[in-house]
Amino acid sequence: xxxxLKGLIQRIRSSVHRRDFEDDxxxxxxxxxxxxxxxxxxxGMTTERARQEAGRSFGGVLRTKEDxxxxxxLALIDGLGRDLLDAKRALFANALGSAVIxxxxxxxxxxxxxxxxxxxxxxxxxxxxxxxxxxxxxxxxAPAAGVEDTRFSVAEVEQYIEETESFESLVEYHTMPFxxxxxxxxxxxxxxVVSAEFFDVLGVEPHLGRMFLLGEDEPxxxxxxxxxxxYWRSHLGGDADVIGAMLEMNDRxxxxxxxxxxxxxxxxxxxxxxPLSACPFxxxxxxxxxxxxxxxxxxxxxxxxxxxxxxxxxxxxVAARMVRTYPDIYPTSRGHVVRPxxxxxxxxxxxxxxxxxxxxxxxCVLLIACANVANVTLSRVLRRRRELELRHAVGASRGRIxxxxxxxxxxxxxxxxxxxxxxxxxxxxxIVDYASRFTPRASxxxxxGVVLLFTLAISAVTGxxxxxxxxxxPRVQVRGQRLRRALVTAQxxxxxxxxxxxxxxxxxxxxxxxxxxxxxxxxxxxxxVDLNWSKYDDTGPVRxxxxxxxREIEAHPSVVSAAISRTFPLARGEVPQQARFQLAEASEQxxxxxxxxxxxxxxxxxxxPLVRGRFFSPRDKFGSPAVVLINQAAAVRYWPDxxxxxxxxxxxKDSAEIVGVVDDVRQYRLDAPAxxxxxxxxxxxxxxxxxxxxxxxxxxxxxxxxxxSIVHGIDPDQAVASVKTFDNVRSESLAAPRLTxxxxxxxxxxxxxxxxxxxSGVLAVSVSQRESELGIRIALGATRAxxxxxxxxxxxxxIALGIALGALGVLPLRSLLSGHxxxxxxxxxxxxxxxxxLLVAAAxxxxxxxxxxxxNIDPITIxxxx
Amino acid sequence: xxxxxxxEKSDLLQGTLDLLILKxxxxxxxxxxxxxxxxxxxxxxxxxxxxxxxxxxxxxLQVQGWIQSEWGAxxxxxxxxxxxxxxxxxxxxxxETRNWERLSGAVVRILQTS
Lengths: 866, 114
Known about the structure:
The structure holds 2 protein chains of 2 kinds.
Chain A: H1 2-16, H2 18-42, H3 47-58, H4 61-71, H5 75-93, H6 95-124, E1 135-141, H7 154-163, E2 167-181, E3 187-194, H8 198-202, E4 208-209, E5 224-227, H9 229-235, E6 246-249, E7 252-259, E8 272-275, H10 280-283, H11 285-289, E9 297-302, H12 308-325, E10 337-342, H13 343-348, H14 351-383, H15 385-393, H16 398-426, H17 428-435, H18 449-468, H19 476-514, E11 524-528, H20 539-554, E12 559-565, E13 578-582, E14 590-598, H21 602-606, E15 610-613, E16 627-631, H22 632-638, E17 648-651, E18 654-662, E19 677-681, E20 691-696, H23 704-714, E21 721-725, H24 726-733, H25 735-769, H26 771-779, H27 784-810, H28 813-817, H29 829-855, H30 859-865
Chain B: H1 2-27, E1 30-31, H2 32-42, H3 51-64, E2 67-73, E3 79-85, H4 87-113
Antiparallel strand pairs in B: 1-3, 2-3
Helix pairs in contact in B: 1-3, 1-4
């Protein structure tokens, strides 16, 4: 015990008095050597001989010192300190190489960390709902009519709740814009209208207060609200005293009873939630009674031990029963199908292919980075061969050298990883914003423990494995350069694949940017003017408001024309509203058209030309014979040989005459052609439509304030939201592909840069190895051009092989890319040719430094040295 | 792999070498070189102490607290590091000698029975 303590004190002392200790040891050992020499002289040797003999018998001084140190138990801590010092020296000695490795690692690790954080947050992490795997979304469709999602009517929801057996519970949901009064300006709040047990089914605990109570969705219950986390933070001050606050909405005050935790914005981004009975629209007896009035969504929780397939069959039986009971509501010509699907799949469906594509690309960049790290490591080992051999000769053990390399690699990996993490961290905001275009789960993306673990793992693999293993290849001196060539070839191949991907996406994006959407987006402004449901509860007031609004807006000197419509082209999140028409009453022949309700000047306001017939006119008023316009796609599809003008569209007892055909408009996406569409006039069919569309004489953003004040002048309680120019809308609709393309191009550029560096390094080593050969050639009369050609030839051979291999790699891209490309084949020859040219140019750039060095070889020096 | 072999040998001899060093130092304080010469002499040149094992052993014994060191002047008046036995080193020597005798006695008996 006492001895142990003494030893410890000794150890600490020697660690503290490190320099003294080393001096002591040096002196002690040199004394020993000296005595040995003197003894040898005394034995009759010459001084020279005596010294040699002493040195020989002494063996390795370094190793003895090392052993002494380790016998003092200093080795581990101390060795590490020394290794770090050595590593610092070695890394600074080859600062460029070190910078290349750290930079390469940082980019590769940063890109992968960022993408992985999105993959983990969106695809892998369990839903933030209690036991989220059992949550399902029910979808009704009418496959024969081509309608993917019909939504549910209240009667249908009730029947599923009554008659299915697979679900613990089913809950109803729809969303409505309401106007919140009491603040400085009326505010439009998107309101989720839900069953009382909605949040219980999701398994959500309130952040503050409580969720809805059973019975709070019954008619006559007190009007209560639950506020979403983001709305609470941004509009209600984020204070706990919001509980109990009264918010004026529709025609009565609502009491806030709870605040939700942060959740994915699904099915929609709602500001507040209210129970079913509080929605004035749903409460209308006519709406409740109509089995065909569908606007609800249905979510549910599977019973334990019930599979999704069983639930599908169960719900399907109920749907079949509906068809039998109400054949007039579910005609066979439409079809009626219900399908439960996992909520997780619904939340991530559109994000999955894009994220996987990005992961594959980022992984490719990482592989190229790994190749570069291995490459630089090899060249370091090759260059430091003499140093390492020397260390070995003077007694440094093999393990010691391995440790030295390991420490160097660790330092590089840690620096690269930390820098990569910093890169990923600083781009997190962009990633979240980007992912939010695909999935409501974007807000769950974070650099959390799992992501950090991932970063650590890839740093270890790329930095450590690729930074040390190449050094231990058997016969590394001989095979090193060959391996480096192979690595560069692989880099070229991978770069080709990435460049081709980016190139194809870029071409596809250019097609989308240049496409004629069918409308003229310049100088058009749109804003959302949702009418107050309880104030404008009948067609009369609605019509009155619209007429007054359009009259006053059009009177503004900067306004060319103004219209009101249910929606506008490329509006985000818009789904088709389809209807089925007959050509004549009771006719069997029917056609499905998208229906848009617009006011008279709509087409002039957004710049859609008339193909034949006429636009809506002032004579098409409320009460006059109904008229309808169709688009060119409908005319071509349904009246291929005749003119549709003068024909009729019939829905039940209503009939409208087709008075004109307008040009096609890309309504929902720029990459989808126009669907057959009918336009009805809101003058004739007054709807509470909400978008104001205004064409102005000059920059529309300048007049937006004045237009808003016109709205407030007509009704001070009217909220105005989402003021945008059409140019912005159009540009915004391409934001997701543009960002994807930017990311892919960034990755491809990284890959190319890393590859150029790798190629340049290999050529440099190759030139230095062939220095004497090249020198002799120059001495024998080879011109500089000839020497340059020799270097270039080697570079081009590597590039050519890489391109050939990369071309094989492009083939499997076809399936991965096909969903992302618009009017570009995945094997587009022009793109591939451009990419190959780029790679060859890059190869030429990589040659510059080594080739110049080769051309500047001084033959005299070479001949003298040899 | 010459290194590994040396290591094996020194491991094998380690206990013995410690004992020999303690014994040598029990006669008089001595510097490293002196110890190696003394062991060689006393063993009539049978045992050659490699300083590659000697100095690590000396420092190890010092860490254990069985010997201590001090700088002094050598016979030819050079600065040398002298080692001497501590009290616990003396105890250690006694225990180790007894152990060694018992062990070598046992080995001898085994060899004689064959």
